[in-house]
Amino acid sequence: MAMSNNYGAFIEKSTISPTASSSCPSLKGLTFAIKDIFDVEGRVTGFGNPDWLRTHSAATSTAPVVSSLLEAGATSLGITIMDEMAYSINGENAHYRTPVNPVASDRVPGGSSSGSAVAVGAGLVDFSIGTDTGGSIRVPASYCGIFGFRPSHGVVSTVGVTPMAQSFDTVGWFARDTGTLKQVGSVLLQQPDLNATEPSQLIIADDCFKLCSVPRDLLVQPLVKSVDKSFGGNTVINKMDLGEYIQENVPSLKHFMTSETQQEFCIPSLMALSSSMRLLQRYEFKMNHGEWVSSVKPEFGPGISERIEEAIRVSGEKIDLCRLVKTQLLTALSTLLGDNGVLMIPTVPGPPPHLQADVVALESFRSRAFSLLSIAGVSGLCQVTIPLGLHENLPISVSLVAKHGSDGFLLSLVDCLSKFI
Amino acid sequence: MAMSNNYGAFIEKSTISPTASSSCPSLKGLTFAIKDIFDVEGRVTGFGNPDWLRTHSAATSTAPVVSSLLEAGATSLGITIMDEMAYSINGENAHYRTPVNPVASDRVPGGSSSGSAVAVGAGLVDFSIGTDTGGSIRVPASYCGIFGFRPSHGVVSTVGVTPMAQSFDTVGWFARDTGTLKQVGSVLLQQPDLNATEPSQLIIADDCFKLCSVPRDLLVQPLVKSVDKSFGGNTVINKMDLGEYIQENVPSLKHFMTSETQQEFCIPSLMALSSSMRLLQRYEFKMNHGEWVSSVKPEFGPGISERIEEAIRVSGEKIDLCRLVKTQLLTALSTLLGDNGVLMIPTVPGPPPHLQADVVALESFRSRAFSLLSIAGVSGLCQVTIPLGLHENLPISVSLVAKHGSDGFLLSLVDCLSKFI
């Protein structure tokens, strides 16, 4: 496997043939790649870390999500590199390698589904699957200039997928075009017909765009224009201060407000939201893997090591409040969106950071990223990353968020809108 | 303690004086009673079963909910009898005694917060606290002809309260009048000012009233008239088929549809909802108490014994789907209610059943009861039981359900409406 051809996306290149029984399976002829977090019968799932690989045995069955894609006629071309234990949104793996960002080779590809995003971005496969706990589909999609879909929490099976933090874990997918994105969705959501419905309203979270270094209009205008062309005046376009709305409607966030959440260039309620997300994530990660980490004492790369140590030290304090925040946010956003409303936010705070950037320099970027990512992350709503080409030679994107369970609606909508973007 | 004076409500009569430090505490002069599920420092919490009492030691601190009532100036007059391990909505305790229903002495008082409801219904205290997992506040309130409030899931502390099933456990309270109900709410919700807001709409779940043996108009008309008198034409009154709406908007319920859910005199989606609730409840109960039950082999009364055995046998299968149903229902009902909408349903399928009724004869009643109770139970929304006097000499009630987190709104609303009921 020559690095130059493959952008370092794969950890294992080996074909798995489709098992389709019908004469015209819906994904016939399409190729895909599988993040090294999904079980494939007879293979040890690597979870991004060599010590994990060494201490685990081969899977005795294939994750249902993988099987259903093979049954739908798709061919897997291999298993992709991921961040260690899915604990990063950067995409840099110190043990294996960092997959090369196909549109910005001096920038990180984004993680933790790094190889899956790169494989699609570089055109090595038609689509790929990954997981998204805190942003692991949405971020690499944005950084690699492709579409990425994080479904509503709980609607796509996570059986046979190594858990990270179950309150947030989702299985998501990447594609270069919205047709493929939707076709894969149709299989994984088990919804054969995804028909387009007009959105009732497009809500622009104006304050959230202030967290992003890309000029607002570059991100907002393409979709606003497309909504206008696609649905005429039928879709109301509203602007709002999302942070303020969340502050008012998620009262338990007050328990996560600190001096840090009051600093400049941040939205206090979203900072508190992301603290609550990170706390529950650490707690569930510890419940899942604390024992393994303590007994095996695995070697981790920079950044990952500190993060995992922090997770292992976490107590159960405030965990009930984290769950209450989830319920309150889900209620608040469901009420805000109503039937068929969509929310527009930046996916990330800007273009992909440089490779091997200093951790401290990245801190403010990471903090703003999690403010944005925790909106769908904590509520469990579905979110799609929509690439908007290059700005100053770097990939930029915007995101749409829709109600829990409106996955088919969101995939159809983005397919519809893409005609005018 | 003479049974005749106390309706058998208390398991222990002993005064705990208020600890109020302010000069004018909000619950000054009020007396209350505590379900035997709340920890009181130095006392063994009984959880309704003598073997539990025997095998547990004294609590080292008092549940914060109890402390906050004492701090607000209320005086506790004692600890009340409850159903064994909170695993019944009947109120019959074979080990201690069945508290006497103060408005229908040949009928069950309802449970599991039986003694707390009876203590209020009989006028022994001004208010009382209990818990509601599957209906343990709402049902005894209805059977004893008093107000009962089940708050939104997670908003009132359950610290120092013996758990039954955490996904559903809530701390609730009883009162004879809406002023007291609201005053207690103000303390427990930590919201000093509960101001009334007009409801935007009152949704009558027409199909749900078909599950109830009491003529529909007797339950629906008092509140409709009061809404009209209180808010003029500002509140829209809508009728709907709630079962159909839930069927369409909670797709995961299909995994809980069986031949049983298709039978006559039932609403299939609500039957499926209650199956999902009962499954997750059993699973969490087993996680909490399975080991204790297996090792101690406690003696249980009729009905309870079978129910606990069934819980101990349950596997983890479908548990993820139960949680998904919760999220989908919360989303669906939040969307339906919008801002300040309220839903009207019968609390229970009819007046309280006879004492020591045959289990088989009660099966259909129980099944319809859980169909109704699972609406707020699974979604985590708040619900208030509103007594509507006697019909054919037996107490009847209706319930209002409001959005998660709208507890203050619902308490103020019922206080407002009570003037014209």
UniProtKB/TrEMBL annotation, chains A, B:
PROSITE patterns assigned: AMIDASES
SUPFAM superfamilies: Amidase signature (AS) enzymes (SSF75304)
Residue ranges of every copy of the Amidase domain listed in the record: 23-191
Superkingdom in the source lineage: Eukaryota
GO MF annotations in UniProt: hydrolase activity, acting on carbon-nitrogen (but not peptide) bonds, in linear amides
Signal peptide residues on this chain, from the entry's feature table: none
Family: Belongs to the amidase family.
Protein name per its UniProtKB record: Amidase 1
Organism: Raphanus sativus
Gene: LOC108837239
